[in-house]
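Below is the record:
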Amino acid sequence: MSKALDAVVDLLDLEQVELNIFRGRSPEGERRQRVFGGQVAGQALVAAGRTVPADRPVHSLHAYFIRPGDPAVPLVYLVERVRDGRSFTTRRVTVVQHGETIFTLSASFHLREPGSLEHFMPMPAVPGPDEIEPASVRLRRLFGAAAEEYARDSPIDIRYVGSLPFEARPDEGEFAGNLVWLKADGELPDDPLLHVCLMTYASDLTLLDTVLRAHGLSWADGITGASLDHAMWFHRPFRADRWLLYAQDSPSASDSRGLARGEVYTQDGELVVSVVQEGLLRRQRPRT
């Protein structure tokens, strides 16, 4: 594994301090002013999954970002065992810092039941990941040495089909959504829970970019944003260290909130994950 990926896998290996209580942390020397949303969501899913039998993979999660997390102090994950049924297991996770709830997650786990109904929407026709430059290479070309930190610290290999979210507006006629190939930057162990938690982490990296692209904007246009809630459905098994196409679009934006959704496909075209997120997006007014 790359050093960056190894560091994220280490972050997801929570410390169990008591029955149903886990402790996590943020990266050492974290430069963000608040905890990255994908990190806290991935860690919360780890906490929930460690209280569930291994033969019951997660099939859905629903989460709310309530307060900004403080990367300088530990995160405490309190797991409530809501239900242990014959086929479904339900867990609720509350994340606490400074005595206050900053994040909640509900997750449902399902004993596999192969059925007669099987379908999925086809994957968009796009160039393969080997035909697209890594985002780190394109950023170096745009920003030079300033992009080195991003390239060094990214645990996910991301390749944008089309313009980068930091570039000028999309070309005329370009898909207004966000098509991204991604995978963990290295080989992962065969633990299925680790793979879904890594995808949970990665799912928060590019979603809100999609809302801005619908308006021909980028983060360089004075936009500030934060995740409000996040939902995922895991349809089929997958590996996060194999190429996945993250096809994202934005059906609506209003009242300083934008909705983005994504479908995750394997390179063979199989739909494995669906994602929906609403985010707070505020455009800074120019000073007069």
About this structure: Helices lie at 3-12, 37-49, 135-143, 148-153, 192-203, 207-213.
